[in-house]
Amino acid sequence: MHRLTALKGSRLAVCSAAGSLLLYRQVYADSARLRSDSDRWEDTTKLTLGAVVSLRMATPCSFDTFHAGNGRATGFVVDMERGLILTNRHVVGAGPIEGEAIFQNNEVVPVTPVYSDPVHDFGILSFDPSLVKYHKLSQLELCPDAAEIGTEIRVIGSDAGEKISVNTGILADLEREAPRYGMNTYNDFNTFYFKAASSTTGGSSGSPVIDVNGSVVALNAGGKVGTAAGFYLPLNSVERAIRLIQQDKPVSRGTLQTVWHHVPFEELRRLGLAEQMEQQIRAQNGSETGMLAVSEVVPGGPADGVLQPGDVLLEILGQSVTRFDRIEEWLDSNVGSSINIRVCRAGQEMELELTVDDLHRISPSEFLSFGGAVVNPLSYQQARNRSLQVGAPYVAHSGFLLRQAAVPDGSIITAINYKRTPDLATLREVLEQFDPNADLVITYMHPSNRHTERTTSTPKGARMWFEDAVYRRKLGARAWMGQSWHAEPLQFNPGEPDAVEEEPAQPKAVQHKLEVQGSVEERVGPSLVTVDFGRPFPIDGLTSESFRGTGVVVDSEKGLVVTDRMTVIAR
């Protein structure tokens, strides 16, 4: 008995020792693996840094949803032979912009826009590789299919305006709704976003999101203020655009001017989706969690009056479509063509035919500048934000002239001198019918009160300080070459003034000084005037452009008024 007990004890001791050994080996293996992963991340980060650049961008004038100013961001080389840099659309902008890229050895090269997507938050810049003398150029490869929940990532860029920062995170969501940044600004839509707690801030826009293999799995785009959440754009559309540009082909982009949302099956049932259709979709893709439904229809677009909010998309050209990238493929490959789609509306299936519009056609590529104001065609972005029809003259910047007339930024000019101006071309034609220094009666509507038109007039002489012109974007000779903007001055051709009959000469009235009796107020009051003074440019360190004060008439015959220097600041 004792021998058996002793034997059992020995066996337990041996098992215990073996367990400790196994545990030690496991800990050692885990430690080695962690060291190995750490070494791999270190090597990957060093290799990635060679392709990452810091961007300094300057926007000379407001345009569409972008305001004039300077900014810092990040980009990375995706084609070192052609000199292509990938970054965000909100970095490249939609209008005139100047910029430069700074490599890790502090070499600086100018960059120019090549492509800015009309909807998704990515843009492409170009630089001349021959200007990089000392930095060894490298490029990063895009791997859209490498993103998975649980993937450890690094976001490498100019976070918080620093030259370079490395933020870590783990992909937690691959189907987040596109972030919304505001009512009167750029917003991405019709796409999923990825999410991770990477704590990225300003300056990291356009940073590559890489995995341990150095593959770019997403493009950093934004974050949520007050949290660690970072939002990344998937690369399907990005990869297609770069490939077409490298092949010297145009990047076709189609649209129905419709906003889609990915809706869970539970909500789709309330919209009338049949259980049989749900079972069919789940059988085709066991991981599918919902389908696309119409959220917004832009007025005047191809879907206006055809699609309705709440319509559930079933098929396009006979093919089941439940994802954003699939519907985008169909639209981009059928620009200008008619397509048949099948939707479920309140439980009833319907066959509809729509014509695919060209996204680039409804994205502004010109603007009119007069009196310091900037007016461009209302973009798809702003039309969607405000539920308006694209193309109307949109005041991106009121400038001196329109600001003096109290026309706010974001207004729609509906008429000039009572002549209707439905688009930018008509607005230009109307302006050219009048003398360049003529006063203008402007009728406008602001989207915040779209049912009310207001009429105002410009002050005398407010247009004399500025050159009136139309600016248009000119594409590069090759698809990967930078774009530029060119001015075309307005050609004024005012009509003949109406003949005025001369009145017979009248004897000149004799002026007498008026002797006013009474109090000081009664004697001085008739000579007091209010002085409104406007200045179109900052001068002598003062940036205000509107001043108001009091003046005293000292010579009624010559029209001389004395006021203080704080009201009339400079000559």
Keywords:
571 residues, alpha+beta, seven-stranded antiparallel sheet, six-stranded antiparallel beta barrel, 10 helices, 33 strands, 33% strand, disordered N terminus
Question: How far is the first residue's CA from the last residue's CA?
Answer: 117 Å
Average pLDDT over all residues: 88
Q: The biggest beta sheet, please?
A: 7 strands, antiparallel
Percent helix range = 10-25%
Using DSSP, what is the number of strands? 33
User: What fraction of the residues are assigned to beta strands by DSSP?
Assistant: 25-35%
Low-pLDDT segments, ≥5 res: 1-18
Shape: globular
Provide a count of the helices. Answer: 10
Secondary-structure-derived class: alpha+beta
Rg from Cα: 32 Å
Strand line-up of the largest beta sheet: 8-7-11-12-13-10-9
Summarize the entry for a quick read.
The protein has 571 residues and is α+β, with helices and mostly antiparallel strands.
Notes on the structure:
By secondary structure, this protein is α+β, with helices and mostly antiparallel strands. Helix content is 20%, strand content 33%. The protein has ten helices and 33 strands. A hairpin with a 5-residue loop joins β4 (98-102) and β5 (108-116). The protein is globular and about 95 Å long.
Blueprint of the fold:
Blueprint: H1 2-49, E1 52-59, E2 69-79, E3 84-87, H2 89-92, E4 98-102, E5 108-116, E6 123-126, E7 152-157, E8 165-170, E9 173-177, E10 192-197, E11 208-210, E12 216-223, E13 229-233, H3 236-246, E14 254-255, E15 258-264, H4 265-270, H5 275-284, E16 290-297, E17 312-316, E18 319-320, H6 324-332, E19 338-345, E20 348-355, E21 357-358, E22 366-370, E23 373-377, H7 380-386, E24 393-397, H8 399-404, E25 412-416, E26 419-420, H9 424-431, E27 441-445, E28 453-457, E29 469-474, E30 484-489, H10 520-524, E31 528-534, E32 546-555, E33 560-562
Antiparallel strand pairs: 1-2, 1-4, 2-3, 3-6, 4-5, 5-6, 7-8, 7-11, 9-10, 10-13, 11-12, 12-13, 14-21, 15-16, 17-18, 17-19, 19-20, 22-23, 22-29, 23-24, 25-26, 25-27, 27-28, 29-30, 31-32, 32-33
